[in-house]
Automatic annotation (TrEMBL):
The chain crosses the membrane at residues 12-31, 90-108, 120-138, 158-183. This is Energy-coupled thiamine transporter ThiT. The gene is thiT. NCBIfam families: ECF_ThiT_YuaJ. It holds the Pfam family Thia_YuaJ. The lineage of its organism: Bacteria, Bacillati, Bacillota, Bacilli, Lactobacillales. The keyword Aminoacyl-tRNA synthetase does not apply. The keyword Transmembrane applies. InterPro entries: Thia_Transptr_ThiT.
């Protein structure tokens, strides 16, 4: 009986944390984040989402990312003209945002490194790269298939999508690495779950 209550309480804590992270990620998406005149974007919400996935694992990370994608579609996608058709909307919002939860594949390894007193910076970068790369790969596919008409007339739509989405991936990785270096000790505290 006690074990069931503890399991239920833990599930509620994970769910509550996920809701807070989704709200924070969505709020951060309203901060201007375009770089220059292009469509390369720094997505500030990726940072709390990556921390949550490392803290709680891949399944809660994927779930929180999916909810964030649906919320972003409703609050920004429909109103900003980022929704062209249902398939494109599903790929670029729920699926792409859920992909960030793949960062959670490194949850156990990162936590073990922290608990062993070692620096997890390299592992965090590797697993964050995976989640971010899959997200921007999905945007790249949607860019080539659905947004090709918006590419400059002299440029192949796939090259254009690669430049925009690859640039966004690189910009977000740079942001993550800078934050990891500056806030290294804080990241460790956010990732380890206190019982």
């Amino acid at each position: 009986m006690q074990k069931n209550i503890a399991t239920r309480n833990n599930g509620l804590v994970v769910l509550t944390e996920g809701a807070i992270i989704v709200a924070a990620a969505q709020a951060l998406s309203f901060v201007p984040h375009d770089l220059g005149v292009s469509s390369i974007q720094v997505e500030y919400g990726l940072i709390p989402m990556a921390i949550y996935a490392l803290r709680r694992g891949v399944k809660p990370g994927l779930t929180a990312g999916l909810v964030w994608g649906i919320l972003d579609l409703i609050l920004k996608g429909f109103s900003s003209g980022s929704f062209l058709n249902p398939l494109q909307g599903i790929v670029e919002f729920p699926l792409a945002f859920a992909a960030v939860g793949l960062v959670g594949l490194g949850s156990v390894q990162v936590k073990n490194k922290i608990q062993d007193g070692k620096n997890p910076l390299g592992l965090i970068i590797i697993y964050s790269s995976l989640g971010f790369l899959v997200k921007y790969f999905l945007h790249f596919l949607a860019g080539g298939i659905y947004w090709g008409a918006y590419a400059p007339k002299t440029m192949n739509p796939w090259i254009y999508s690669l430049v925009i989405n690859g640039g966004s991936f690189i910009a977000n990785m740079i942001m993550l690495i800078v934050l990891l270096i500056v806030l290294n000790r804080v990241f460790k505290r956010f990732i380890i779950v206190k019982e």
